Amino acid sequence: MFDEFGGTKQDKVKHEVVLWDEVSAEEGTGIVHIAPGCGQEDFQLVKKEELGIIDPVDVESRYKEGFGFLTGKLVTEVNDLIFDNLETKGFIYKIENYKHRYPTCWRCKSELIFRLVDEWYISMGKLRKQLMDVAKKIKWIPSFGLERELDWLKNMQDWLISKKRYWGLALPIFECKKCGNFEVIGSKEELKERTVEGWNTFEGHTPHRPWVDEVKIKCLKCGALASRISDVGNPWLDAGIVSFSTLISPKTHKLSYSTDKKYWREWFPFDFICESFPGQFKNWFYSLIVMSTVLENTNPTKTIFGYASVHDEKDEEMHKSKGNTIWFDDAVEKIGADVMRWMYSRQNPVENLRFGFNVANEIKRKLLTLYNSIEFFNTYAFPKDYPKKEIIPRTKNILDLWVISRLNNLIEKTTKNLDDFNAMSATLAIEDFFINDLSLWYIRRSRKRFHPAPERSSVQGKKTREEVIGTLYYVLLNLIKLVSPIMPFFAEENYQTLRQNNMPESVHLLDWPKANKRLIDKKLEDKMIKVREVVTLALAERAEADIKVRQPLNELRITNYELRREKELLELTKEEVNVKKITFGKTLKLDTKITPELKEEGIIREIVRNIQEMRKRAGLKPKDKILVRYAGDDGLNKILTKNKSFILEEAKVKNLASGERTKDSFDAEKEITLEGQNLWLAIKKL
């Protein structure tokens, strides 16, 4: 069809029609032309059929000399020219469009073509079994990593090690153009010894282009000058040899692998590699295994931890061209480095991480629970109250014993998971502890113990306060140690608020906590699970009846007879559900009848809550003494007068006074309505 093209390999090509299983009668005409110089499948076919190969385009994807009206034109610009040429010759029957898969640049989406070039390979067939045996010696996390690596090794072809680039690892391959012989130079010393030309230009520079290209050696076969090939190396060659090419001996001050093998073996194989899975099975993991197998016939690392990709919040790949990329500096500035570390650590490595500012805000809210727990402690406890040294608290309080047990369980679980490189399980366990165990249960149920009731003796009150402060100090200090590898800055900042003069200057200088199995009480933990289940069911009944938790109720009937003798646990349940008594029966039932006495108590609790909220809004601390003034409807005034002592204690109020609403200056004021009656409240710091 294009006999006018002359002076190319086209002249010597024999054109034939062959059967090919890549073509079917169901699509198109059942006949296709092939371009072995621009297609992998086409190239394999002509190799099989021993047909001629035409290489029509140059490095810029333009037609070479000798292709007539196509010469110099981009391959993407010639469709219509070819159609016009064939139509002029009378070769056109019909022109149709067909959908065709085509490679594109992942960055700019420009169309790409395959081009036939000469490359350098390492023959891998004979190494296949050895490589697979070495891969099996590595612990892969997740475990399917081994399956993927073995699949690659099972189906791998020869290793392409060259690239048509200028910058990169200069391959030390010297080829003689006269006789075709080539040699691989093994070191800089060997190259200097073999050089017959260009060493002065190269000396003093790194072994990269253009300087290394000036060096010529004498061909050992024919004696002619041999030059380095123009190709540079696949970057994975350099990455794969890192086990052997980087460690310097302190004794010889040279490469330890070649000058101090004893020292080198102290570091080999690596303990741990952490790298993204996609692509690395045929790249870095592969090159590491190859180099280590060839040089030492063993695994280059003990463990490989792999993870999936980072996507945007819609689970789409991030690309600059799509506009959904979040740059690292922006992420650190807006999210915070420690929050990002927590996000990554808690992620299941098998699944893609959905990353974005909204997701980060969800994680921040979780971490805020831990921060608030530490702030609570710093608000209600003072350095003079801290234990003189880091010791296990001496306490018989059931909540203290329970949280100490839970903490030591957490230490044991976290340590085991981190030892197994399971950051996700460790992080989620810590998160569950500080949200559900520490904040929602222990601290909430222990608040009153930071303010002992006045009717207790001063000795008993002091002991109660010492126990709860000592316990929470012990828990928080160990919790900060556990989060320190994941959130180093957060841990350091909060450690400084708990640190005493006899303690190391940094949390990162402390020993890792060890679980004390004597403090783990599995039976107590199981009983507390049952208590919390009862509370959840009872609070659900409250919600269904639309009764606030602050409204006391008379009775809760439960089915857990095993708790009958657990006085402290039953007391906890009563306080949490806010009932006067607990009885036992065949079904769980909450008595929702509200008597006038119960309603009055509920009103008082609501007033106390409002006073505390006003105190917080005014920026006052729990230790600050305040005056509360009120004015309301007669019914509420009578209730306040009747329950004055309770309000003074419960709300930590110095003075509670009634009277008409005044224009005096207060730190906070509020108007509320309770059971259809109005009440004005005002607070002032004394």
Q: What class, by secondary structure content?
A: alpha/beta
Average predicted confidence as pLDDT: 91
> What fraction, in percent, of the residue positions are helical?
40-55%
Number of domain units = 5
Strand line-up of the largest beta sheet: 6-5-9-8-7
CATH superfamily of the largest domain: Isoleucyl-tRNA Synthetase, Domain 1
The first-level CATH class of the largest domain is given as Mainly Alpha
Coarse morphology: elongated
Task: Tally the helices.
Answer: 23
Low-confidence regions:
none
Percent strand equals: 5-15%
Number of strands: 21
N- to C-terminal distance: 103 Å
Report Rg.
39 Å
Instruction: Name the CATH architecture of the largest domain.
Output: Orthogonal Bundle
Sheet with the most strands, sense and barrel status: 5 strands, antiparallel
Tell me the CATH topology of the largest domain.
Isoleucyl-tRNA Synthetase, Domain 1
Summary?
This protein is an alpha/beta fold and 686 residues long.
How would you describe the overall organization of this protein?
The chain has 686 residues and is of the alpha/beta class. The chain folds into five domains: 1-117, Valyl/Leucyl/Isoleucyl-tRNA synthetase, editing domain (Isoleucyl-tRNA Synthetase, domain 2); 122-128 and 149-280, no CATH class; 357-505, Isoleucyl-tRNA Synthetase, Domain 1 (Orthogonal Bundle); 523-590; 596-685. It has 23 helices and 21 strands. Strand 15 (553-558), helix 20 (567-577) and strand 16 form a beta-alpha-beta unit. Helix 13 (337-345) crosses helix 14 (357-380) and helix 15 packs across helix 19 (522-544). The longest helix is centred in the last third of the chain and has 26 residues, at 458-483. The relative contact order is 0.05.
